[in-house]
Task: structure prediction
Amino acid sequence: MGNSIFKIGLGLAVALLLCLFSMPYGYYTLVRFIAMVVFGCMAFVFYNEEKIPLCVFAGSLALLFQPFIKIVLGRTMWNLVDVVVAIVLVILWYKKKGYN
Result:
């Protein structure tokens, strides 16, 4: 599961970048749910690899993106978060790819 979750993270990065455009509200909710699951899985992988700071980071992102209790940041701030997180996902995938 370790490496495949980072490949899925690439798809999530694309989905986050699509959030910069005007999309139906359901799309944003779906992306938040998927992000919560992906970051939760990444936190588990990082925990098993004993990379605790990355585990905490991924767990924090899972909490930020969870769709059940909305965290209101405003459209501009969410766009910034989406771009930064997409970049981080690409970097994580690239670093993980190097270990294969």
The helical segments are 2-18, 25-48, 52-65, 75-97.
